[in-house]
Amino acid sequence: MPKTQPSLAVEIAGMRLKNPVMSASGCFGWGDEYARFFDLHRMGALVGKAVTPRPRPGNPDVRIAETPGGMLNAIGLQNPGVEGFLTTILPRVRELDLPVWVNVSANSIEEYVELCATLSAAEGVSAIELNLSCPNVGRGGAEFCVRPEAVGETVSACRAVCRVPLIPKLSPNTTDIVALARAAEEAGADAVSLINTLVGMAIDIERRRPVLGNRTGGLSGPAVKPVALRMVYEVAGAVSIPVVGIGGIACWQDAVEFLMAGATAVQVGTASFFNPIAIPQVIDGLETWLAQRHIADVREIIGAARA
Fold first, then answer.
1. Which of 27, 116, 134, 145 is catalytic?
2. Are 178 and 235 a contacting pair, CB within 8 Å?
3. Element containing residue 292 per DSSP (H, E)
4. Is 134 part of the annotated catalytic residue set?
C-alpha cells in the first residue's frame, strides 16, 4: 500500500502555513531571482528583504566575504524604503498564494512604530518581522537588540499600532537571548524568530585591512547552526508563543533538528546563495522523512527533543 502523504501544515499566530519552511530575510530578495529555479508557491511563507523608513544605498564595498562554513555580509539594509516597497514590490508579491512577512528595520522606536502602522494596514502584508538585530549597520540593531527593557518597549509600542501578527527577530549577540524572548512575549509579540547573524570579521593579510568595507558584518551559514539550534532550544522552553528557527539550515536534516528543538517553522537563508533550490529540497526531504517513518503530521515532531 502507498504511504499516506503526511501533513506539513503549521500555524503561527493564526496564519496557516502549508509547510514550515520559508525564506529568511536578506537572503532571498523578494523572490524574483529564485522564481526561475522553483515555484515560490511551494514555500510556507515568503520573508523578504528588510524595509526601512527611507531608501538606503547600503554599505560601501566589499559587502560579502566567504568564510569557512559560511559567509560574512555587510549589505547595510539596501532597499527602496517603505514608499518604494509599497509601490514597486508589494503589488507584485501579494499576488503569490502564500503569506508575505515584511521584515522592518529602523533607527528609533518612533520609526519602528511608523513602519508597523503603515505596512500592517497595507493589503497583502500577512505579518511584520521586527528586525531588532541587524549587526551590520551603524545604528539600528545595536540600540534595540541587547537589553530586554529596550526589546519590550519597542515591541509594546509596535503592538499598539500593528494590525497583523508581530514577530520580533532576536539577536544572538547578547548574554541572554531567553530574556529578550520573554520580554518580547510579555510586550505582546505573537511569535519570535531567531537567530539573526553573529557579529564577525575577516582581515586581508596582504592589504592589512578588514575585508569588509564596514569592517564587521553578520556571520551566517552552516557554521552558526549549533549556536542557533541551542538558542532556539532554550527559547522554545521558556516562552509559550511560537518560535521560528533560523541559522545555518541547509538541508532537511537541519530543519528536522530545529523542529525537534521546539521551532514551529524554519527559515532558510545563506543556503539559498550556494544552492538556489535549497528551500524546495528541504520541503521534499522533510515530507519524505516523515512518510518513511509513518508520521502523519509534522507537528508530531515539534519539540520532540524536549521530552
1. 134
2. yes
3. helix 278-292
4. yes
